[in-house]
């Protein structure tokens, strides 16, 4: 086992007193900045660790956290941001907020801006089409913590806050099957995003459990917009062997499906049961009310910022946590109860 | 007419060359900061103006704008923020965002935080119960621009972005009267806020135009929440002389009224016509679809940030603008067409 580097090791190498090293690592004003820099640099080089090491390295803390979301104008994201702001504000942190507009290009620019703004930490939900992790490497190299929420990247240096999308997809599909559905259409988003691939995996697991073969002609990958809902129902209406159930990976698109189905004279849930995802406010207003998954947006925002601040304060490092899975919940309403 | 102060006047008074004065006002690195400060101070004292004067004064520009909203988790505010972020990002500005949670106390704390964060400008929609302007005085004193949007304060040094709430309230009430309504209930928010007092004034103007006397027992001041909608309908159900129309000052509360009315067996719009305000997504999902006022949230955010940046870049000072009124629009749907 490799021996842990101590302040005595650093002091010896630099021919300084251990007290000076300790003070420098705690950013004590009595140590001049040149000495401080040489100590901090050597400590980093040797892999020195202490509970407050990360925060000491950031000698220019801005008490600002960067947040990058796909879109600001979504009900889910506004709940997340409300939760984030409440916790950040309480702890004396500010939030610098930007949106990628679902584009990898804009996300990269946003990440660079956050870097130049010297945020103490970065909280990200990645864009629809983001492919790689490279644009976050600068943060990792500088020990600036990056935390993903909802739409995540799995990276050893980063933590993630999610719900169990596989389990949620499994529960809602199982519910449809238990209501008698046998041909269940699934309208989803980009399967490179964990949230959509997870829900799709859950859908497949439920079919497998009940011995229903997967029919790929019933899977539609869309951008989950209102328009996508209308297009999905247009396609459904032309099918010879029509589905008796439909699971849509968000409520905005699901509500649009319900409206399009009703316009074409389908009776919900008798002709076709409809289930969404998110528990968006519209799910309680549409008639019939929509079966969906409760998605704890506010809690996700709160936990994300709390995890980040605990790391920055040296209470608990984010790379020891890896993933926090929040509880989601199936909410059964009239749109699926046959 | 008073003569405009020039760099020659400043140079003469300070016994410096005009070139030095010019360079100092343009924040040229060759001029030492003490000289720069004395020149900038004298220029300010004499009322010197140039296109870039405002931006020169702010020698420590952070390229960050502060935004304080009542709540982050509202559909209207998330549209505003999306518009703000798009314009700010395009122009190289960051947004520091916080919420007052409708409390004057938290708003004051937020304003202080924004001040200490050295934002280049502040964009505010005031809380439900904010009483005075004092907490913004520090900004005004330091020449840091403050712009109000939606819920505003009238202050000579600040600009405001609003819709014409009086006109919108007038139009929607007139529409109810034209549909045959004669006893129109009005559910509104804190009348100290321009948005609610304006809509109420518009309601009164419409009644006056059609010769309908104002009945104050039909006016309910609430927090416009979902619960407030249920409470309003409970009260309505107990009235002997029931209203035949109801105008609610936001859609969230209006949708809750529709649901409560339907539960009690009222037919909409035959028994009672219902109109909301905001064109919130739920207004298009509730049955019957809700008559409302289109409220250009995204545009309001865009115009607010564009106005602020124009000021910061010296293109156009905000105190010459005072108020920008955006177009709103009556949207007639089934909930009012008898």
TrEMBL record, chains A, B:
Keyword Nucleotide-binding carried by entry: no
Keywords: DNA-binding, Transcription, Transcription regulation
Any matching Pfam family: Peripla_BP_3
Stretches assigned to coiled coil: none
Cited PROSITE patterns: HTH_LACI_2
Domain HTH lacI-type, residue spans: 5-59
InterPro entries, A to Z: HTH_LacI, LacI/GalR-like_sensor, Lambda_DNA-bd_dom_sf, Peripla_BP_I
GO MF, one example: DNA-binding transcription factor activity
Gene3D superfamilies on file: 3.40.50.2300, lambda repressor-like DNA-binding domains
Keyword Transcription regulation recorded: yes
Designated name of the protein: LacI family transcriptional regulator
Organism: Dyadobacter psychrotolerans
Lineage of the organism: Bacteria, Pseudomonadati, Bacteroidota, Cytophagia, Cytophagales
């Amino acid at each position: 086992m490799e021996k842990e580097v101590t302040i005595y090791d650093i002091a010896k190498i630099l021919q300084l007193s251990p007290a000076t090293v300790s003070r420098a690592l705690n950013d004590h004003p009595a140590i001049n900045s040149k000495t401080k820099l040489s100590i901090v640099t050597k400590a980093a080089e040797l892999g020195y660790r202490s509970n407050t090491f990360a925060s000491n390295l950031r000698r220019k803390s801005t008490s600002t956290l960067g947040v990058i979301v796909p879109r600001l104008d979504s009900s889910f994201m506004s709940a997340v941001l409300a939760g984030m702001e409440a916790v950040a504000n309480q702890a004396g942190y500010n939030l610098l907020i930007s949106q990628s507009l679902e584009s990898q290009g804009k996300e990269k620019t946003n990440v660079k801006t956050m870097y130049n703004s010297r945020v103490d930490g970065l909280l990200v939900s990645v864009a629809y089409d983001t492919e790689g992790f490279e644009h976050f490497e600068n943060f990792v190299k500088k020990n600036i913590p990056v935390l993903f929420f909802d739409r995540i990247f799995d990276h050893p240096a980063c933590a993630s806050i999610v719900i169990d999308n596989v389990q949620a997809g499994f529960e809602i599909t199982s519910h449809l099957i238990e209501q008698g559905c046998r041909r269940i259409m699934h309208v989803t988003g980009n399967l490179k995003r964990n949230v959509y691939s997870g829900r799709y995996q859950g859908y497949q697991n439920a079919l497998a459990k009940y011995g229903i073969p997967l029919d790929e002609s019933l899977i539609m990958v869309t951008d989950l917009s209102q328009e996508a809902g209308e297009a999905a129902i247009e396609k459904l209406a032309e099918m010879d062997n029509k589905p008796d159930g439909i699971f849509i990976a968000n409520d905005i698109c699901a509500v649009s499906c319900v409206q399009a189905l009703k316009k074409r004279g389908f009776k919900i849930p008798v002709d076709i049961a409809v289930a969404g995802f998110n528990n968006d406010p519209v799910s309680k207003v549409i008639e019939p009310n929509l079966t969906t998954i409760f998605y704890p947006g506010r809690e996700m925002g709160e936990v994300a910022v709390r995890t980040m601040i605990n790391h920055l304060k040296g209470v608990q490092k984010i790379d020891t946590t890896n993933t926090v899975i929040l509880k989601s919940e199936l909410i059964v309403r009239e749109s699926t109860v046959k």
